[in-house]
Amino acid sequence: MKNAVCASRQIVKCDTPVAILPRDHYESLVETMEILNDRRLLERLESAIGNLRKGKFFTHREVFSRRRR
């Protein structure tokens, strides 16, 4: 999306506000809701973030430069 400008607009249908979003924003919102509703995934993400903060991780080079046996 080149130089996209998003303006806020309120559209009302049958006295109920509705939203119109660009497709990529909608898909991102749906994906976020799916992640937030997956308790196991959230626990894994929290654990991974904790490991990052503690410095427990492998660099790209460490992971992909190892010879496969």
Properties at a glance:
69 residues, 3 helices, 2 strands, single chain, mainly alpha
Describe it for me?
The chain has one domain (11-64). It is 49% helix and 9% strand. It has helices spanning 23-36, 39-53, 60-64; strands at 11-13, 16-18. A hairpin with a 2-residue loop joins strand 1 (11-13) and strand 2. The chain is elongated.
Number of domains: 1
What's the order of the H and E elements? EEHHH
Helix percent band = 40-55%
- Structural shape: elongated
User: What's the tally of helices?
Assistant: 3
Terminal Cα span? 44 Å
Main β-sheet, spatial strand arrangement: 1-2
Describe the oligomeric state of these chains in a short phrase.
single chain
Strand percent estimate: 5-15%
User: Major sheet: size, sense and barrel closure?
Assistant: 2 strands, antiparallel
Stretches with pLDDT under 50, minimum 5 residues = none
Radius of gyration, Cα only, in angstroms? 20 Å
| Total strands | 2
| Overall residue-averaged pLDDT value | 83
Q: Return the structural class.
A: mainly alpha
